[in-house]
Amino acid sequence: MKRPSFAAILVGLIPFLGICFSVSWWDRATPVVLGLPFNFFWLLAWILCTPAVMSLAYWLEKRR
Amino acid sequence: MSPGAVPIAIIAGIVGLGSGIGFWAGRKRPLNLEEWVVAGRGLGLVLVWLLTAGELFTVFSLLGLSGWIYSRGGPTLYILAYTTLAQVVGFFLLPAIWEHGRAHGIQTQPDFFVQRYGSPLLGAFVALAGVFFLILYLQLQLTGLGIIVQAASFERIGRAPAMLAAAALVAAFVFTSGVRGVAWVSVLKDFLLVAAVFVIGLSLPYIHFGGIGPMFAAVAGAKPGHLTMPGATANLGHSWYVSTVLLTSLSFTWPHIFGSAFTAKSGDTLRWNAVIMPFYVIPLMLIIFVGCAAILVVPHLANGDLALLMVVRRTFPPWILGVVGGAGALTAMVPAAIQILTASTLLAKNLCRPVFSPAMTDQQVARLARIAVVAITAIALVLAMNSSATLVGLLLMAYAGVGQFFPGIVLGLYSERVTAAGIFTGMAAGFSLVAFLILTHRDPFHGISAGFVALVVNFALVAAVSFLG
Fold first, then answer.
1. Considering its fold, how many domains does chain B have in total?
2. I need a surface site. Which of A36, B16, B413, B422 has the fewest CB within 10 A?
């Protein structure tokens, strides 16, 4: 089976860094942003960014 | 007229309409296994999106999510995290599974193990485990559905008759229409659910607190520390979060999600689907808003799973409770349908045929699978009627279990050297460790989720047995 490209996998790691591994850094109640506790805001922002990041991975896979 | 009459009439109307769509979608389709299980591998982006959204957004997302933020607080964020990251994992692995499936005519997850490792017994083992986990998940959908009807009828209708009626309807449209019917019911389910969640999620904070910011400020004032980890729990901290998110982001290892990959027209359809699917996580954030409002509006509920329904019942007129309840009922029925269909196919094709009657034709398997629909539904129904565990507890155990399929799938796709013996040893050890840690209340184990600990041991054993044996 053909493996995904190394570059696409690196791009796929970006949401894992933002959403998963960095939790100790962003799991705080303050500062409040747009009325949300900081951890809620951070997660929501990353959820919205993930499709953009994965579009890049899609483009990298498609180009091969 | 009793206060429950309006919501119950609306729920019955929505459920009836949804089931009607399910029956309609299956008319004039050939009744062979390929059409019933994988829709002839012909679904485009829209139906694949609806089907995967149907699997992603279950009754657990509605009641369990709002219940967790209500009773446990910050650790609930893991659900939003893994739902998003599961799409990233799916982006890389589902197209490869799809290609493998088309090349070898694979319809189910155990088929994959049989084909790749050349062992029908390994396939039967995977099928047995898969059926077990699916019944746990299915029972959860039925329990959730019972809770919805009970609360929406102002306790006039009990859980048992509600679960019985809904289970019969689901079994009937799975029986006649197969996976294509399920995808079509998702059209109504998704439309209603997203609309209902946006309306209640955005209006509740304004009605009770004057805005989203003031609501979070009020919750933080009344319960400091509730909205960060570990919240109201003793041991669900950051190491638990990371290990649980990593494990549950492998949710494509669920037999029904794995199997739905084969319904797509192309691998590219699945890749695109994974790119856009995180947008579907936004409604989950709104459900968290509802749970936060419930913390102060309907405090002291004995069962957190009731938080969403009770705050809606307290705030809105009966017809809105009815629409939310109807959307919730379909949100239980759609995943239940996919799970019943998958479990029945696993039972007939991958367990009964190789073990009892290897000479069965595919047509006979298709007939047996339809009989299995009734059996699986009945078992889940009995379990749901006698269960007392809360929704998330059951789901965490099943998730920890299905995660143990991961080494067999990913190494099966990309490594030449793994053997059937290695995969079997790792998986059996993984299941045993999950059961031991959870049933003896050792989860999380030193701050790390039991499923993740088991997965590490699983991988180590697969490598040891395959490469040294």
1. 1
2. B16
